[in-house]
């Protein structure tokens, strides 16, 4: 790819993914100066906006800036022309996520609300078909049997184990493969780095930011958002690990005492998810913070699905503790109908992709202050020959 070759259609292509206002921008740089995370390596959002305006598709695809941005909204507050650069960065992240995706599905759902709903509905329809097929073909039950026969959860194993592994590991594989493509696209962002980070250092930085979201906490207005995202991240991680490695232990017909690890682990993850998703949804409804004043469909749908998955899990748990076995099965079916589309669509293609793209971008561009200072100091061996003549 020719990084400095101009593509006159780039601005129009980017605008298919959301709002991107450049008509009012007069390139003053106030947005970059107002951002606590912008630095000499990531001078966003101004740099990314200029790439689009000038049609520099290659440089945009190689850019890490849209991901290093943690969406606090300070740039939009500071902009004297009210061009909302924060919204532009959100649009660029949807655009770039679609560039990385080799399946083409991310491009469809990030450009079209209709396609987004269609893919989620299709996934739910497939799950409903499999549920009916299981009950009619494996358990040999009719619809009337389902309303009159007591039935626990144990009968679903090992079928449920295979299904759960598939709906988690296949989307995860797609997401990781897209992250590898991102690493390839952004290679040019590292080609002029005179002090490259070692691979172990990149891995360490990635893991730190993947688990802590610490960059978000550095934003002046991002402390509460950091806590919300941290809670969601920990809650999701707990449930994903449990479902992959301990589904038979976690999902049983046996009612364990309250002090059992199975119960307090589930309760802990549930509280984290309810607080995180509920707080962000409330923020998007009230629109009091700049970051929540503009929300696209994809911003809402992931939160709604995650909140609904958590809430349906609570209802399922209450029915199971109450001994309503048939009701438990129906509640479980609804829970799976909500959770599966979220996993197979949102994890590899939608809003959830931020969980891996952001820490990867930070790890690729991050260098310590000590390294940057040393790079600026010339030792005698590093002084060019012409400088001594």
Descriptive overview:
With 389 residues, this protein is mostly helical. The protein has two domains: 10-100, Orthogonal Bundle (Fumarate Reductase Iron-sulfur Protein, Chain B, domain 2); 105-371. The protein has helices spanning 10-15, 30-34, 46-53, 57-61, 65-68, 74-78, 85-100, 105-111, 113-138, 143-146, 159-185, 199-212, 214-218, 223-245, 247-250, 261-286, 297-322, 325-349, 354-365, 369-376. The protein starts with 9 loop residues before the first helix and ends in a 13-residue tail after the last helix.
Strand content: under 5%
Give the averaged pLDDT, no decimals. 83
Q: Give the overall silhouette.
A: elongated
Q: SSE order in H/E notation? A: HHHHHHHHHHHHHHHHHHHH
pLDDT < 50 stretches: 146-150, 368-389
Number of domains: 2
The helix fraction, in percent, is 55-70%
Using only C-alpha atoms, the radius of gyration works out to 24 Å
What is the rounded distance between the termini? 39 Å
Global structural class:
mainly alpha
Largest sheet: none
- Per DSSP E runs of 2 or more residues, the count of β-strands stands at 0
Number of helices: 20
Concise summary:
This protein has 389 residues and is an all-alpha fold. The protein contains 20 helices and no strands.
How would you describe this structure in keywords?
389 residues; mainly alpha; Fumarate Reductase Iron-sulfur Protein, Chain B, domain 2; 2 domains; 0% strand
Task: Write the topology of this structure.
Blueprint: H1 10-15, H2 30-34, H3 46-53, H4 57-61, H5 65-68, H6 74-78, H7 85-100, H8 105-111, H9 113-138, H10 143-146, H11 159-185, H12 199-212, H13 214-218, H14 223-245, H15 247-250, H16 261-286, H17 297-322, H18 325-349, H19 354-365, H20 369-376
């Amino acid at each position: 790819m020719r990084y400095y070759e101009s593509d006159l259609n780039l601005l129009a292509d980017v605008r298919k993914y959301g709002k991107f206002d450049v008509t009012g921008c007069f390139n003053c740089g106030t947005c970059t100066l107002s951002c606590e995370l912008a630095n000499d390596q990531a001078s966003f959002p101004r740099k990314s906006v200029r790439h689009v305006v000038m049609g520099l598709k290659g440089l945009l695809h190689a850019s890490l800036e849209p991901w290093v941005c943690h969406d606090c909204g300070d740039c939009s507050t500071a902009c004297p022309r009210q061009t909302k650069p924060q919204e532009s960065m959100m649009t660029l992240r949807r655009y770039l996520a679609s560039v990385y995706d080799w399946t083409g599905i991310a491009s469809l759902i990030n450009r079209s609300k209709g396609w987004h709903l269609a893919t989620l509905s299709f996934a739910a329809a497939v799950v409903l078909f499999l549920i009916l097929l299981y009950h009619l073909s494996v358990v040999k039950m009719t619809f009337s049997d389902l309303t009159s026969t007591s039935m626990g959860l144990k009968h679903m194993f090992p079928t449920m184990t295979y299904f759960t592994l598939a709906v988690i590991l296949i989307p995860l594989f797609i997401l990781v493969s897209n992250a590898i493509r991102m690493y390839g696209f952004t290679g040019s962002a590292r080609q002029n780095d005179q002090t490259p980070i070692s691979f172990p250092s990149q891995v360490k930085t990635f893991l730190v930011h993947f688990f802590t979201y610490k960059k978000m906490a550095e934003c002046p207005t991002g402390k509460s958002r950091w806590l919300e995202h941290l809670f969601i991240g920990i809650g999701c991680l707990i449930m994903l690990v449990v479902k992959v490695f301990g589904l038979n232990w976690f999902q049983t017909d046996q009612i364990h005492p309250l002090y059992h690890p199975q119960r307090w682990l589930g309760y802990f993850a549930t509280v984290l998810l309810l607080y995180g998703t509920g707080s962000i949804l409330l923020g998007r409804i009230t629109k009091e913070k700049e970051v929540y004043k503009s929300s696209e469909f994809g911003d809402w749908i992931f939160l709604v699905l995650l909140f609904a998955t958590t809430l349906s899990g609570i209802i399922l748990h209450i029915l199971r503790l109450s001994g309503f076995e048939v009701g438990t099965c129906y509640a479980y079916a609804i829970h799976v109908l909500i959770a599966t589309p979220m996993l197979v669509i949102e994890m590899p293609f939608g809003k959830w992709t931020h969980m891996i793209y952001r820490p990867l971008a930070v790890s690729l561009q991050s260098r310590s202050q000590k390294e940057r200072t040393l790079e600026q100091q010339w030792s005698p061996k590093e002084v060019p020959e012409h400088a001594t003549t």
